[in-house]
Design brief:
By secondary structure, the protein is an alpha/beta fold. Helices cover about 35% and strands about 20% of the residues. A 7-stranded parallel β-sheet has the order 3-2-1-4-5-6-9, sandwiched between helices. The chain has a two-stranded parallel ribbon with strand order 7-12. The protein has a two-stranded antiparallel sheet with strand order 8-11. Helix 1 crosses helix 6 (about 165-175), helix 3 packs parallel to helix 4 (about 110-120) and helix 5 (about 135-150) crosses helix 7 (about 195-205). About 40% of the residues are buried.
């Protein structure tokens, strides 16, 4: 029987999609989270905290493959360092990390921590694979839904996104985890690039709402980077197939043209 695969962040949006794929491929899965969870066939939960290191050594014991999906808006570099140290000490054979497209090109603090996390993985001494993905459809929907709750919606000019379906990211990560370590692999983005205003308008149409969009300019170096498309995928990227409009229709039950 295969050794278990450890998944950090296995209870999050992406983790809940990845874990079943690994189980369906015939692998036992061990999920690391701060609060644990209910076991299911082939899936066990262990409690640990990557911020403090508590429980991490035990979580990686007897594991050959680790998928690091846990993260947030800050501290990702420290989480990755903690996991990388434990993985090296446990002789893990493959450490897989999901990062964000533009982590090395957009000068925002949270993306700098993503880049530092990438470096912690690549410098770990453990054979590794890193996939940079675009913003998920699910997270894009959360963003435009919150923005659409405002009476007047600020629409940053020149800001573009290429949202990708979370299930396609999950499938790519599962395949990478079960393959040989490959280093930094091609970006994974959605099939189409949208201005943020297009995404907002498509949501408004789909939900039958009317709002005024007010163009705004993102200041500073981050604004310049977004206007130059630094958050968009590089040539040679892998493209998902499920477009934003299809996802939005499935979510809200009305057709959307974008």
């Amino acid at each position: 029987m295969h050794p278990p695969i450890l998944v950090t962040g296995g209870t999050g949006t992406l983790g809940r999609l990845v874990v079943p794929l690994l189980h369906e491929a015939g692998h036992r899965v061990r999920v690391l989270s701060r609060h644990g969870g209910a076991p299911s066939p082939g899936v066990t939960h262990v409690t640990g905290d990557l911020a403090t290191g508590e429980g991490v050594d035990a979580a990686v014991r007897d594991v050959q493959i680790v998928l690091h999906l846990a993260g947030g808006q800050k501290g990702d570099d420290q989480l990755a360092r903690t996991l990388a140290r434990a993985a090296r000490q446990a002789d893990v054979r493959h450490l897989v990390f999901v990062s964000v497209i533009g982590a090395d090109r957009v000068p925002l603090a949270w993306l700098r921590t993503k880049l530092a996390a990438e470096q912690a993985v690549s410098d770990s001494g453990v054979p590794w694979t890193t996939l940079r993905a675009a913003q998920f459809h699910e997270l894009t929907l959360t963003l435009v839904r919150k923005m659409s709750a405002l009476p007047v919606i600020p629409a940053p000019g020149g800001m573009r996104l290429e949202p990708v379906d979370g299930r396609e990211v999950a499938a790519r990560l599962a395949a990478l985890a079960l393959a040989a370590p490959a280093g930094l692999v091609p970006d994974l983005a959605g099939p189409q690039v949208y201005a943020l205003g297009e995404l907002i308008r498509s949501y408004l149409r789909a939900t039958g709402r009317r709002r005024l969009l007010m163009p705004v300019r993102i200041p500073g170096s981050a604004g310049r980077a977004y206007r130059q498309g630094a958050n968009l995928s590089l040539p040679g990227a892998t493209r998902g197939t499920r477009a934003w409009g299809q996802f939005l229709t499935d979510q809200v039950g009305h057709p959307a043209s974008a």
